[in-house]
Structures are given as C-alpha cells and as structure tokens.
Task: inverse folding
C-alpha cells in the first residue's frame, strides 16, 4: 500500500511539472567582469530547460569562451610550495579558456536570480617568458616561462574558471540583462630548462589570480 501511495505521488508530481509547460530556450550571451587587476570578457552559447511560469526553475548548460586579461602590476599568489613566494606582473598576462558551464535560475517572466559555474574545460597553453613577471620573496630561475594550466575542473578548483551569481531582468522575451558578482580564477604553471640538459624541462611552481568581481551580461534568447 505504501509503495502504491508513493508511486501515485511521483506520478502526480511529474504530471504537475509537465502541466506547467516546460520550454527549451537557446541563448547567446556576452559578459564582462572587471576590477582588482583584471578584466574577464566571455561569450557563451547555452540551452535552458524552463519549467513553470510563476517563479519556475530553469536549468541550463552549454559552452563558454573566456578571455582572462590580467593587468601589469597584479600579483599572482602561490598555490603549491611557498605561500610567501608570489609573482608581480611587469606586463599583461592572458589566458583563454573554453568551458562547459552549468547553471540554475528561479524566477518569473521578467525577473530571476541564478548562478552558473564552469564545470570543466581546457585552457589554451600560450606561454610567456620570464620578462613578464618578477618573483617576490624568491629567486627567478634562468630562462623561466609561464604557461596557463591546461585543464579546468570545478570540483578540484583548478584551471581557468568563471562562476557568476546574478539577478536578471528580461524586458522582452528576446533580451535579458544580468548583473551580479563573478568569482573568476586563472591558474598558471612555471618551468625552465635544465642547466645541464636543455631538453629536460623542470617544473618550478604554480600560481593563480582569483577574486570576486562585478560583472554585467547581455543575453539574447530564442525559444526552440
């Protein structure tokens, strides 16, 4: 009897959810986070499953390309060995990442609140030489280079990632403005050739730039 009641309850819930008119949308979004030593523009394509009209839930995922530009003078913190050792940039440092974001929103036709985060992806490994930074509380190895970390994982907190917490306003069905705070991070590895055998590359240390920044996004919506 209890199993029958549970089954009926599940069926009733499922019927109620789909009776609320589930819809699928496509979105093209351009966003920019800024402040405290970096600017982080991004473009993305996502699809959203929207369930319910009055403060319903919306689940979304897709692809996002992020260009992380860290300004001259910014300090990169150490993430591995010596917490006192850091890098002071003497020129701009860039990281370009392609990620799969996931997100959830709750709201109605006009306003909503939500969060999305880069689940996983990879960063293009474009290296810069040691002229782009100085080592604080340490000695810089000869011929050292700095390279963005290759893979991005939300669970392990590694790589180049973008997590956005926001409120949104949709004045028309085809256009949405989002604004809030973005937790952005770019990770870098440093290495240098061995003094005896230059074909051997020695991993030196890892660093990152990470902080909470304001962001604004313009989103264009299309119902499938």
Result:
């Amino acid at each position: 009897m209890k199993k029958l009641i549970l089954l009926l309850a599940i069926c009733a819930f499922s019927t109620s959810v789909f009776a609320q008119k589930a819809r699928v949308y496509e979105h093209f979004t351009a966003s920019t986070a800024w402040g405290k030593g970096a600017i982080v523009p991004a473009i993305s394509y996502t699809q959203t499953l929207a369930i319910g009209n009055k403060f319903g839930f919306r689940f979304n995922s897709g692809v996002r390309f992020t260009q992380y530009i860290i300004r001259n003078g910014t300090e990169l913190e150490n993430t591995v060995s010596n917490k006192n050792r850091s890098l002071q940039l003497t020129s701009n440092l860039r990281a370009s990442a392609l990620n799969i974001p996931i997100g959830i929103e709750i709201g109605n036709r006009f306003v909503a609140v939500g969060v999305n985060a880069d689940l996983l992806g990879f960063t293009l490994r474009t290296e810069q030489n040691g002229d782009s930074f100085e080592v604080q509380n340490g000695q810089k190895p000869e011929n050292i280079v700095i390279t963005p970390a290759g893979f991005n994982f939300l669970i392990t907190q590694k790589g180049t990632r973008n997590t956005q917490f926001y409120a949104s306003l949709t004045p028309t069905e085809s256009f949405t403005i989002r604004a809030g705070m973005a937790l952005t991070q770019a990770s870098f590895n440093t290495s240098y050739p061995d003094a005896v055998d230059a074909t051997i590359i020695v991993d030196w240390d890892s660093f990152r730039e990470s902080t909470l920044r304001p962001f604004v996004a313009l989103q264009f919506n299309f119902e499938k």
